[in-house]
């Protein structure tokens, strides 16, 4: 009998009202792993009602007390990182070496926002002796958090922690492909002292739960991370309700290597930029722009770095499987597209197979050279370990190519010239730019996109303003 993953509502495990479940497949083996509840609109309503009922007591709690509970929660996450990490790894297929970092980040969100719950206080506005005028920030109420499958707990924590810190309650919807770890996190939240109903998890298909959540009048804001099409569909519903959204919708991030860069460091960092999490992260540096004068030399270094990667199911593998079968098949389709566009991989370009794991969903990290920015592989988000190496002439040419994209989530710059770094960073159309490394940044730094990569910000102090509403109070004395 396979285990079943149910929703977690009002502090307890809740099976779907209609008793329907979907199979969850292990990406490492292609075999059935467990069964996941397929909740419907009625289940969504129950979860939202629970959050609405818990709102007033949580909102009215002293911020310092909320902060203490969130810090206790962060400590409990650290104490339970092996349990949470094992659940996430089983569902995503991530190598064990990645999990310690992701669990640390998950805990950091609750610790960070638990420590700054009073930062977003209002201000007094001087209007002379006859008035006392001030502002305050109020929570929205019930927040819907709709999540992707690529980094379940990290993505959840970065939205849930600031939402809870500012006095909102939450109904979180994980991907049906990666639900178990978030359900366990919600159970642990109650153990840490977060009252039942404050943090609920509804499990099921996004195509069902997303619209039901967006239409529900108790939902006062939604944070969504996912694809453009789903974000657009959610946006249409939100427009009808005048419902605030925070959207992170993907990217095709430019990673720019200038001729004065440390090429060894740039090759190593640029490899990580498109292969971390098997390329399954929105800000992956999958458009690698390299100055013409160093292009051939840099490509040789890059291919050598990629050739040293270890792809497989092992704990110490550099790159694991693709998390869903649909994504595995989508990535393969781009190999055919590349061939039609006249591209030949410098390395990779095929499925990887491993003894005992022949049915797993593994893709060899792939480098395409001689790419131009108008090619399909340079325009579309592939969400897999494929990088396009594009030559550029000078600084102006690099900026032209980098900004010629419908996306604008992240970017990288490799250069020893600090003046150039500041000029390029100022002119890149991207929400977060990393220099002389390529990483996801820090919990304390805001994250969000330009253009079709979305709007609003998660992470950092700025996120608090996206989970509160500003109110002015004007008193005539």
TrEMBL record:
Q: Where is the active site?
A: 248
Q: What EC number(s) does its UniProt record assign?
A: 1.2.1.8
Report the superkingdom from the record. Bacteria
Q: Say yes or no: keyword Oxidoreductase present.
A: yes
Q: Which InterPro entries match?
A: Ald_DH/histidinol_DH, Ald_DH_C, Ald_DH_CS_GLU, Ald_DH_N, Aldehyde_DH_dom
| GO molecular function terms listed in the Swiss-Prot or TrEMBL record | betaine-aldehyde dehydrogenase (NAD+) activity
Assigned keywords, A-Z? Oxidoreductase
EC main group:
oxidoreductase
Stretch list, region Disordered:
1-26
- Record's keyword annotation contains Amino-acid biosynthesis: no
- Pfam families the UniProt entry points to: Aldedh
Q: Do you know which PROSITE patterns this protein is assigned to?
A: ALDEHYDE_DEHYDR_GLU (PS00687)
Ranges where the Aldehyde dehydrogenase domain occurs = 22-473
PANTHER family in the record:
ALDEHYDE DEHYDROGENASE-RELATED
Q: Which family does it belong to?
A: Belongs to the aldehyde dehydrogenase family.
Return the protein name: NAD/NADP-dependent betaine aldehyde dehydrogenase
Q: What is the primary gene name for this protein?
A: betB_3
